Amino acid sequence: MNDYPWFERGHVAIVTGASKGLGLAVARELARAGIALVIDARGEESLAAAEHELSQLGPVVAIAGDVAEGAHVHQLVEAAETRFGRIDLIVNNASTIGRSPLPALEHLSPATFDRIFTTNVYAPLHLIQHALPVMRRNGGGTIVNISSDAAIEAYPGWGGYGSAKAALEHVSRILAAELEGSGIGVIVADPGDMDTELHRAAVPDAERASLADPRDVAPALLRAIAAPRGAFVRVALQSAAVVASV
Ligand SMILES: NC(=O)c1ccc[n+]([C@@H]2O[C@H](COP(=O)([O-])OP(=O)(O)OC[C@H]3O[C@@H](n4cnc5c(N)ncnc54)[C@H](OP(=O)(O)O)[C@@H]3O)[C@@H](O)[C@H]2O)c1
Q: Going by CA atoms, what residue is nearest to atom 23 of ligand 1?
């Protein structure tokens, strides 16, 4: 039985960074709801394992690659179009915090800053830019950009990642204003702290038991996607609170 009856079976989602962590948990929920998937990640082995698992639930195309590379982003959109004929949902989940231990802004190198911004801000926008004509042909869709409380809080050492997530959030707000009336909504979602590789790399001494399991966070994201809203909404998934809606 579909736990998210508002999703139409046969709709199509692109989920980036879906080989583990939150991306895999979201892809799993979407597949269970009858959504066809295009997923990616850089590591081929873990992506193949995710593809194998998800293919037991429904149609999935997995393409290994880096969201920071334009040709790979084009492949994702083309796969959705040629294999499934439409795109209804984009979940921009893939992210990097940069190398740990996280340096203070005073010591953040231009190359690291550039890499963090390309992966967290330009790559999601690039995927959106390329997918929008396909979404418009469907008459609408949903764009979900995964953010963080680091976009708002000033955590020392998190300056590259935090400022990139803040930029992603503002890109999302402006995009929503530009897409007003198109039937395409934009959601920014802060998943809260989760026990994942990204968190382990950033905060190796964290108390793991206090962190959420991404499998428990993913259903909150799907509920947020489905809830009635304006053109833009920011949600904090672990509080299940709508923080801002326009
Ligand atoms: N974990 C937390 O506590 C937390 C808190 C707030 C926000 N978030 C956000 O939640 C999202 C998911 O994070 P997570 O904790 O689930 O991370 P994760 O477990 O480390 O998973 C990240 C996924 O993204 C893929 N990936 C990373 N860089 C990529 C790239 N350049 N191109 C394509 N795929 C890439 C990874 O696979 P490969 O490495 O093989 O590419 C993996 O599948 C991120 O946007 C993160 O900023 C997480």
A: 17
b or e along 116-142 (b: 16 or more beta carbons within 10 Å of the residue's beta carbon)? bbbbbbbbbbbbbebbbebbeeeeebb
Does the annotation mark 161 as catalytic? yes
0.85 cut: is pTM over it?
yes
Q: Which distant-in-sequence residues (6+ apart) come within 8 Å of 96 by Cβ?
A: 115, 116, 119, 120, 161
Is residue 60 within 8 Å of 36, Cβ to Cβ? yes
> So what's the pLDDT on residue 240?
56
Which residue ranges in the chain fall short of pLDDT 70? 1-6, 240-246
* Closest residue by CA, ligand 1 atom 17: 198
Domains, in order of start, for the chain:
12-245 (3.40.50.720)
Which of the listed residues 40, 45, 73, 93 should we mutate to test ligand 1's pocket, taking the one with most ligand atoms within 8 A of CB?
Answer: 93
pLDDT (0 to 100) of residue 60: 98
pLDDT confidence of residue 90 = 98
Quote the ligand 1 centre to 86 CA distance (angstroms). 25
What pLDDT is stored for residue 100 in this prediction? 87
